[in-house]
Design brief:
Strand 9, helix 5 and strand 10 form a beta-alpha-beta unit. The chain has one domain: TIM Barrel. The strands form four sheets. A six-stranded parallel sheet has the order 8-9-10-11-12-13. Helix 1 crosses helix 2 and helix 5 crosses helix 6. It contains ten helices and 13 strands. The protein is globular, with a radius of gyration of 18 Å. By secondary structure, it is an alpha/beta fold.
Length: 324
């Protein structure tokens, strides 16, 4: 079954984790369409492909960027053919996703389907591949909910995500609205038999609640600080404070970092923070706060590789959270 532990499924085929020597962006978008009234810029399409390729290629040259986990799933304007083109042109490996986002973006057929049917749909994506090129996803995500607890349609799509993950061996990455509802997601997913270490709870850098972060990590799931640079939602000083609190609590091995570029105005050429904000702006602040290079590598490379490929990879621990 695709998704067996030890390999990562990319848009160009299986990838051995040991071949990934540079950092990973654990939650990004390279092609999507989330346009709704009041959100006219919430898309990335062929008009932006050249700029996206240029950004990723530059990050590969300057920072060794090796892998992007692209979490555009069903109902979000997914375009796996575009992901394959971007990966080939930039030289950066890309993981594609499947699953369903939060309820406002569920396609009509999802609202009518039971969990069994939803599992069939996702399993077909994983086993047979997506689109004419039969590109296989490497994770289920970003599987979403919209409030403190998933609504009825979201409970069905999240349940289907968990059951498909158990069946296929893929991990599940979630979307939470402003970081809320992560514990409820974790409880629902694990109730289906999905191990916590196969789950990443999304957008936790938007939730100013260190106790929730500690609990997610203590239960064995990954805590995604994946909207780095989106200062309209959260100041980076708060992000850094929350990150350091989680590190000081001993959970360096449960942190994922990324920028969640989800509209064309975030691209560098349009004056946005770009995919490189994590490397150029945020990580220097993390290092200045006393976080060692080993921990930075853990958060940006070894953790996402273990999340994608499964447990058993070497280097899952860091010797210290911060320099003393």
């Amino acid at each position: 079954m695709p998704g067996a532990a030890g390999t990562i499924r990319t848009v160009s085929g299986p990838l051995c984790p040991s071949a990934v020597r540079g950092p990973v962006l654990a939650h990004e978008h390279l092609a999507l369409d989330l346009r709704r009234p009041g959100r006219p810029a919430a898309f990335l399409d062929g008009r932006h492909e050249v700029a996206i390729v240029a950004e990723l290629a530059t990050l590969r040259e300057q920072f060794g960027l090796s892998l992007v986990v692209e979490q555009t799933c069903r109902g979000m304007g997914r375009d796996v053919a575009a992901l394959a083109r971007v990966s080939a042109a930039s030289g950066v490996a890309v993981v594609a996703g499947t699953g369903w986002y939060c309820a406002p973006f569920h396609p009509p057929d999802v609202r009518r389907a039971d969990v069994g049917r939803l599992v069939e749909i996702l399993t077909r994506d994983v086993v047979d591949g997506i689109g004419p090129a039969r590109i296989r996803p490497g994770l289920i995500g970003e599987a979403g909910s919209h409030g403190d607890r998933p609504g009825a349609p979201e409970r069905r799509t999240l349940t289907a995500a968990a059951r498909t993950a158990v069946r296929t061996g893929l991990p599940v990455a979630t979307h939470t609205r402003l970081g809320r509802g992560g514990l409820a997601q974790l409880a629902l997913l694990t109730a289906q038999g999905l191990a916590p270490h196969r789950i990443a709870i999304g957008h936790q850098d938007l939730l100013d609640d260190p106790a929730v972060h500690r609990r997610i990590a203590a239960e064995g799931a990954y805590v995604s600080f994946d909207t780095v640079g989106k200062t309209a939602y959260q100041d980076d000083a708060a992000r850094l404070r929350l990150l350091l609190a989680l590190l000081d609590a001993g959970h360096a091995d449960r942190i994922l970092l990324s920028c969640d570029i989800s509209r064309h105005t975030y691209l560098a050429g349009q004056g946005g923070q770009s995919y490189g904000y994590l490397f150029r702006t945020f990580l220097p602040r993390v290092r200045a706060a006393g976080v060692s290079g080993d921990v930075v590598d853990l958060m940006t490379r070894r953790n996402p590789l273990r999340f994608l490929a499964g447990p058993g990879l070497p280097g899952g621990q860091a010797s210290a959270t911060r320099s003393r």
